[in-house]
């Protein structure tokens, strides 16, 4: 059994069809007996919105953390 990390970019989770596709890829690895860690970026076009929310929530944010 391998321990693997699967990383999916924002366009990979841009809509429900793509999210389902990602889930199929992950399931295939799990079904093969692998331990899987999944890393998912923000959905396409959402990173700036998330950073903006962080600025609103905490004036002490550090842009290097993104």
Description:
By secondary structure, the chain is α+β, with helices and mostly antiparallel strands. It has one domain. The protein is built from 2 helices and 2 strands; from the N terminus they run βαβα. β1, α1 and β2 form a beta-alpha-beta unit. The N and C termini lie far apart (about 35 Å).
Structural class: alpha+beta
End-to-end span in angstroms?
33 Å
Strand percentage, roughly? 15-25%
CA radius of gyration: 15 Å
Which bin fits the share of residues in helices?
40-55%
Please provide the count of β strands: 2
**Which residues form runs of ≥5 with pLDDT under 50?**
none
Number of domains: 1
Shape label = elongated
Number of separate helices: 2
Biggest sheet strand order reads 1-2
**SSE arrangement, N to C:** EHEH
| Main β-sheet description | 2 strands, parallel
Q: What value does the average pLDDT take?
A: 88
Walk me through the topology.
Elements lengths: L2 E6 L7 H16 L3 E6 L6 H11 L9
What attributes does this structure have?
alpha+beta; elongated; 66 residues; 2 strands; 2 helices; two-stranded parallel ribbon
In short:
The protein is α+β, with helices and mostly antiparallel strands. It contains two helices and two strands.
């Amino acid at each position: 059994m391998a321990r693997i990390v699967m990383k999916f970019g924002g366009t990979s989770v841009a809509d429900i069809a793509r999210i389902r596709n990602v889930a199929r890829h992950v399931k295939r690895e799990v079904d093969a007996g692998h331990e899987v860690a999944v890393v998912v970026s923000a959905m396409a076009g959402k990173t700036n919105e998330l950073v903006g929310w962080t600025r609103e929530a905490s004036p002490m944010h550090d842009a290097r953390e993104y």
